[in-house]
Amino acid sequence: MSYLIKGGTVVGPTGPAPADVLVDGEKIVALFAPGAAPHQDETIDATGKFVIPGAVDAHTHMELPFGGTHASDTFDTGTRAAAFGGVTTIIDFAVQRYGEVVQDGLAAWHAKAEGNCHIDYGFHMILGGVTDESLKAMDQLVTDEGISSFKLFMAYPGVFYSDDGQILRAMQKARDNGAMIMMHAENGPAIDVLVKQALERGETDPYYHGVTRPQELEAEATSRAIWLAAVAADCPLYIVHLSASKALEQVAAARDQGRNVFAETCPQYLYLTLEDQLGAPGFEGAKWVCSTPLRSKHESHRADLWRGLRTNDLAVVSTDHCPFCMKDQKELGLGDFSKIPNGIGGVEHRVDLIYQGVVDGKLSLGRWVETIATTPARMFGLYPRKGIIAPGSDADIVLYDPDGQTRIGAATHHMNMDYSAWEGWEIAGRVDTVISRGTVIVRGGDYSGRKGHGRYVRRGLSDYLV
Length: 466
Ligand code: DUC
Ligand code: ZN
Ligand code: ZN
What we know:
By secondary structure, the protein is of the alpha/beta class.
């Protein structure tokens, strides 16, 4: 079936332009100057709307086993919530647990996702250990499985942690096969010392989660990762969930030298703070325990991160969607912040929260689309199939109403969470219509998608490599 999306303003990474978009089956087949398209029986009226590529969230953790529990969104609930938020592709992190065969971890992730997703999905692979076998597996995943990015952790000793020697070996392998190394850059062993000392002093509230993960330990790990990647002949490196000014300085310096270094941030670091959220009275702050942590409002982090998005030192906004309910999950850390499962759910709100940056004059319209859709697609080998409105691309399209309003809260969101990290926030703009591979799955708040519509997407290498 073909139809014309008519009367809207198409926004791509280079900015807005009025155009009509012809969709045939699952693909975009043409763009026309307004009114220039041949007659179509089926049309979707986009008057007054931005017509943007479906958003790509390159960092989610559906069903992640973590902190003695599981992230509360399944692939079913999480991808449906994502669709409501204008997301048409996620890249989730498959996990190789310590001692496990990489391919077995991947198979387990496919089993969780297959037949359950409402939108398309790809995987990165978390390496829970770097061994001769896992290094071989990296080649096989790149060549045969469409997985071209691997996440390593400098934090969480005993869980996901890799030491510098292991990291270097994985980076050398990535340099050879063209994969991207994604780094959780925090100095885990040093954090563990600070956590133990804080607990011994009786500092058990959620607030101390932030205090024991100071920005210096994010900056140090970021810098170390950048230098290790240099030793690995400038292996492509992507710093995940960057939260702090000093870490951003490290990335900016590397980029100024023309290095293959990239970074993402997340909405929580652009808006929320150590004092106002993590420091909320009683156990309330547990809602915002995530790592890297929220940073102090008395320092310049948030302004620096918005600037980093403008200058491209931060290339991508992802969510690090890792939801846990307060009841029975975050509550595991009552009386001991170090036992609170780390994570914030937000897959449904990134498109709106970053559009608010446009309204506030912090980002251009083109940069909004670039950071939430085009660059993540290009960074992780999905482009031009995803991330752009162009002939030949998948018809993953969002009609966005700039005159609408979004009110965020647990009573109305679709994520499987008993609270919202953004409860009561009223922001400008609203997702109006969401189209996934040609099929309308959300329209005016009504859902017409289905579990199983989403397909696994094999990814190529990053577009940004030299
Ligand atoms: N950080 C989180 O907050 N949750 C999951 C893993 C991570 O690195
Ligand atoms: Zn991480
Ligand atoms: Zn994560």
